[in-house]
């Protein structure tokens, strides 16, 4: 796991956080700030993202195995896994391939079943497939306000510091050798077949699960939260975050954390 970077703070039961495509462990900083005095919080930088190196295989199953590598490297026997965006898809794959490593699973707005990539994200994937996304991102690095608004405008209700957001999310990707091309390659590997293939195993997953969903998300409609509730036997409820957008765990962490505490206290 020498090429995998992570943020780790605190002591106690382990909460492991997984971000999605185009973000990083930075997404979880506000959640971790609230939980660090009561739990051991670990947030991975997925391959290519944040401080982690790129890899030859950037498929979702390979990303899930990178999470398993981190658990092995840190000696994490069981974790409370929390995923957002593509990280939620990775968390689902990790859960069915390594169920013994989970104490619980929490999914916030994320790719589910056939909704990968989501309809509103397909134009970005098409740009990547044509090799046009990386040059566009590189050209906009000198205009972080415009880049943040175009890349993350639908995921946040308000971006307070676009420079910090670009520095945390996109700059580390583009700074790596061939990082832009690898990012394009990653996007073209997003395929619903990886989630459809695990549906049967999700229906028998013996893990307590929580679904927390922002209702103002342009990418992941509330119907997908209901799909998870009806598919995962461990889900008892859907917690709705009114008007929450895709990245509500970042900008509205104070509304997510109490539900995590309540859920974990019942385990």
From TrEMBL:
InterPro entries: AB_hydrolase_1, AB_hydrolase_fold, AB_hydrolase_sf. One of its GO terms (cellular component) is membrane. Keywords: Hydrolase. One of its GO terms (molecular function) is hydrolase activity. The keyword Cytoplasm does not apply. Residues 16-116 form the AB hydrolase-1 domain. This is Hydrolase. It comes from Nonomuraea glycinis. The lineage of its organism: Bacteria, Bacillati, Actinomycetota, Actinomycetes, Streptosporangiales.
